[in-house]
Specification:
single chain, 148 residues, mainly alpha, 3 domains
């Protein structure tokens, strides 16, 4: 039983060491060979699952501590990222769509020809479907009483 915490600690040290010593290439190697790394430290599926749960619990505890912090630089980085990404999406999609529609309509009216619409909606459709998928997953979890 006392061997288990050491395995998790060794695993985490290996992950952190691989990322910090290798920089971006170390992180990429870790992502592509993550399963091999887990297999090196844990033999059974139950051990692997338990170790990953311990890591997830540690991350949740870290996130909770960061959220409680009085400094905006510690507690505010996640909301900041959310706002930046939200503003980025706002400027990327609606404004891009409005400007493209205006330019397209002007071109059609001036030339008298029906030209192709300049925006491919594939990336927007992909995002909407991803958001709907997450909402559907959340609804399913609530229905199954997996979460509150």
């Amino acid at each position: 039983m006392s061997d288990k915490p050491n395995k998790v600690k060794d695993f985490i040290s290996s992950v952190v060491g691989g990322v910090t010593s290798g920089g971006v290439s170390g992180a990429v190697d870790l992502m592509s060979n993550g399963g091999d790394l887990i297999d090196r430290f844990f033999e059974t599926k139950d051990e692997k699952r338990e170790a990953l749960m311990e890591i997830a619990k540690a991350q949740i505890a870290q996130n909770t501590q960061e959220a409680k912090h009085s400094s905006i630089w510690v507690a505010g980085w996640r909301p900041f990222i959310g706002w930046v990404l939200g503003l980025g999406l706002f400027f990327y999609y609606p404004i891009r769509f409005a400007v493209a529609t205006y330019l397209w309509a002007r071109e059609v009216l001036e030339s008298g020809l029906l030209v192709d619409y300049p925006i491919d909606a594939a990336d927007m459709i992909q995002m909407v479907l991803a958001m709907l998928g997450m909402a559907g997953l959340r609804s399913y979890e609530k229905k199954q009483k997996i979460t509150k």
